[in-house]
């Protein structure tokens, strides 16, 4: 990666938080409502999938965070294995194995898992990861990929670089620099993590209100902070959080827990099967059949 590429310099000089605050005010304002049909046409969004009629959205931000008329439907052959579902709509930006405590960010670039999680851990060594990028056109709600116990939610302060192709290509260790929310889960004694990355315009990630997390606490600077701790069971497909523009979700699994069966560049939707849980008694040798395969 060229350390002083013009795009890198531009990203460094970008007034990220100022731009995010300004965009937030505009997009949350009722004055942005006329922009909704423009946004739909610009990104080719299927407006019929929105859970509410377009006139019901009071601002562009509300439309960004819209729910959709879609239910999780298990594939016909999931009776043979315990599936892992995509938590979001998006594109598989990277998928692979964790080596030397690092995961791939983009071609020729990687980042530290310990830095990403703000926790000095080798727990995920030789495990697997998948990075899903949400474009502004995507459905922005985040769902639970497999039934599990939520154990803790941690806020890691940071900046707000764009997480699109330019950001991942020209900014070293981008995901460890940006503000993020790390959620830790446990299933069958296997602990895994879901990391929701903030971005320019997006700002902080919104967690389901039932967790009682105060937004102001989520925005604090300085050291990582524990937002919530306990033992709460969530089922696959449960809605858990949402973004307000476009961002990135990273799933991290330790070795011998899962088999991820998606490829880089593949488009997925929330509730699509992206792999299988390997610790369940239901696992068989049946290959995973994906739509269009």
From TrEMBL:
It is an enzyme of class 4 (lyase). Pathway: Lipid metabolism; Phospholipid metabolism; phosphatidylethanolamine biosynthesis. Its EC number is 4.1.1.65. Pfam families: PS_Dcarbxylase. GO terms for molecular function: phosphatidylserine decarboxylase activity. InterPro entries: PS_Dcarbxylase, PSD-B. Keywords: Decarboxylase, Lipid biosynthesis, Lipid metabolism, Lyase, Phospholipid biosynthesis, Phospholipid metabolism, Pyruvate, Zymogen. Its cofactor is pyruvate. GO terms for biological process: phosphatidylethanolamine biosynthetic process. It comes from the Bacteria. This is phosphatidylserine decarboxylase. It comes from Sulfoacidibacillus thermotolerans (Acidibacillus sulfuroxidans).
